[in-house]
Automatic annotation (TrEMBL):
Entries under InterPro entries matching the protein: dTDP_dehydrorham_reduct (IPR005913), NAD(P)-bd_dom_sf (IPR036291), RmlD-like-bd (IPR029903)
PANTHER family: DTDP-4-DEHYDRORHAMNOSE REDUCTASE, METHIONINE ADENOSYLTRANSFERASE 2 SUBUNIT BETA
Any Pfam family hit: RmlD_sub_bind
Keywords of the record: NADP, Oxidoreductase
Source species taxonomy: Bacteria, Bacillati, Actinomycetota, Actinomycetes, Kitasatosporales
Role, per record: Catalyzes the reduction of dTDP-6-deoxy-L-lyxo-4-hexulose to yield dTDP-L-rhamnose.
Pathway field: Carbohydrate biosynthesis; dTDP-L-rhamnose biosynthesis
EC number in record: 1.1.1.133
MF annotations from Gene Ontology: dTDP-4-dehydrorhamnose reductase activity
Enzyme class, spelled out: oxidoreductase
Name of the protein in its database record: dTDP-4-dehydrorhamnose reductase
Length: 305
């Protein structure tokens, strides 16, 4: 890790946080949320700064930090299907190395995982302790990372599963739909997959809240579900994004997932329950429509750009 990045938080005082994957959509939001907190000293490590598959580098990077937020991952779902071993080296083995480094340093770990660890065949929201059963390579790799955190950090490891993330940084569904509005009169969007659209900024704030609760000894270790409340299909999300952005939602037309064949199977049902937040003294996150409205109002998206 470069000296510039490693030293970023040391002079500021306060509790030292390390954010891995700091250049990604969520990572950037976590760094921004922590930078605004005078009680936090932030070390932001991008993929170029810190290799999750290098145990020695992880040991050195974690040393001196009280808490780590791991937003680094192999996120190419279809790419994982083509090369599961390579994806699991990052999402499984890499997380094990990071958990071991946290154990050695006595640091807490908040690790980001995914709804894809579940099979997607439920009829009601998945509880945090429901049986897992990934249907694709990406999910299997992420589950391996979850298991490593639970094994190596039983009292100081926090896994936060999220889904359907969108935000100001990087590629995401909402930004893509609003960009396509400039070149497509109508858009066919899948209406038979259910999930919880979640604003990266809102999740970043929740992660910092969880971290503070964990540091204070008020949050039990284990799995939490970091998704917005409510549920929607991709079609409903696209219509809401159009409407909130001043576009005609009738330009969005419903279709089915079988019209878009992709290498990796996607869960049909990705709605997660949020009961465990109460154990950390925190409420569930806001409804997805409220989050989306706030994101659009904040100028998160450039319509048609």
């Amino acid at each position: 890790m470069s000296d510039a990045v490693a030293n970023e938080g040391t002079a500021a005082g306060g509790t030292r946080w390390l954010v891995t994957g700091a250049g990604g959509m969520l990572g950037q939001e976590v760094v921004a949320a922590l930078t605004a907190d005078p009680a936090a000293a932030v070390t932001a490590a991008t993929r170029a700064d810190l290799d999750l598959t290098d145990p020695a580098a992880l040991l050195a990077a974690v040393r001196g930090h009280r808490i780590v937020v791991n937003a680094a991952a192999w996120t190419d779902v279809d790419g994982a299907e083509a090369d599961e071993a390579a994806a699991t080296v990052v999402n499984g083995d890499g997380v094990r190395h990071l958990a071991a480094a946290c154990a050695a340093a006595g640091a807490l770990l908040i690790h980001l995982s995914t709804d894809y660890v579940f099979p997607g065949d439920a009829k009601e929201p998945y509880r945090e302790d429901d049986p897992t059963g990934p249907v694709n390579a990406y999910g299997r790799g992420k589950l391996a990372g979850e298991l490593a955190v639970a094994e190596l950090l039983p009292d100081s490891g926090y896994t936060v599963r999220t889904a359907w993330l969108y935000g100001a940084h990087g590629r995401n569904f909402v930004a893509t739909m609003l960009k396509l509005a400039a070149t497509h009169e109508t858009l066919d969007v899948v209406d038979d997959q259910l999930g919880q659209p979640t604003w990266a900024r809102a999740l970043a704030v929740r992660l910092t809240e969880l971290g503070r609760a964990a540091l204070a000894g008020d949050a039990p270790a284990g799995a939490y579900h970091g998704t917005a409340a409510g549920q929607a299909t991709w079609y409903e999300l696209a219509r809401a994004a159009f409407e909130l952005s001043g576009l005609d939602p009738e330009r969005i037309r419903p279709t089915t997932a079988d019209k878009f064949v992709r290498p990796a199977k996607r869960p049909a049902y990705s709605v997660l329950g949020h009961d465990r937040w109460s154990a950390a003294g925190l409420p569930a996150m806001a409804d997805w429509r409220d989050e989306l409205k706030a994101a659009v109002a904040a100028g998160t998206f450039a319509v048609g750009a």
